[in-house]
Amino acid sequence: MKNIFTYSAAFVLGLALVATPEADAQQFSKRKQYNSVGFSLNAINYFGDVTPVTSFTSLRFGATRVGAGVSLTRRFFPRLSGRVGLSYGRISGSDEKATDGVSDPDARFRRNRNFTFRNDIIEASAVAVFDLIENRNNYLKRPDFVPYVFAGVAGFYHNPKGLSADGEYVSLASLKTENQASAYGKTQFSVPFGGGIRYRINRNFDASLEIGWRKTFTDYLDDVGGKYAGIENLSGSELRQYFGYGITKDRGAFPGFDNVGEQRGDSGNKTDWYIVTGVTLNYILTPRIKNPKFR
After folding, report:
1. Model-level pTM?
2. For residue 89, which of 141, 180, 159 has the smallest C-alpha distance?
3. Is the pLDDT of residue 110 over 90?
């Protein structure tokens, strides 16, 4: 599934090109275009190293957190709209809670790694929304139910924090817990894509249910991305030594568990994802209708 975001983006853009020929532009005049503002309540999950399985499809529902967002949508053509949005959400993970006992082949490794984190994400996005049911009329005659797909680009700010021995969450990026040459960036880009269904409530209100994946280009949403650095390479900070080495649960039972070069995260340099499932209430900003002038 590593190329699924590329195919999704190409699919939506291809549909947009097919759906917006010159004839559509002429038939769907500016007076039929309209704007809407949306307010969303979201559920946030993440895929990464601190999940039951380190794959795109793995998540722990118990780690779901609540988020919120606002958006502005402009309908340009019978099927195509543009949407910009700003949202906030939190992702989290715990090695202890991500394992499922003896049936998990990685359970001993994960419990011994003993890592718990949370990460607050602020995202700004711009996506193209393609309706599977078109509306060539104005907003008053829009369909009652409209399934849709979307894809675009987003930028986000994140700041992963780990749970310390004192029960406090500590910012991790600057600690370089894997002895990186430089701290990973807190500002990153992602490719959002997904789909949903929109329902017309009345003249000015729509409600939608949507699920969207964010393909990121970082493996450090959870601060776990590679190999152990070893205690000898983690000088300068007690917190750095703790999260990069001291946090290990039972070193005596697993000799060499966190020695230099031992695997700390998934292999293959995989990147982390997060997923946003939300309910949105959209208010249509009534377009100004100009009356024709008679002579």
Report:
1. 0.85
2. 159
3. no
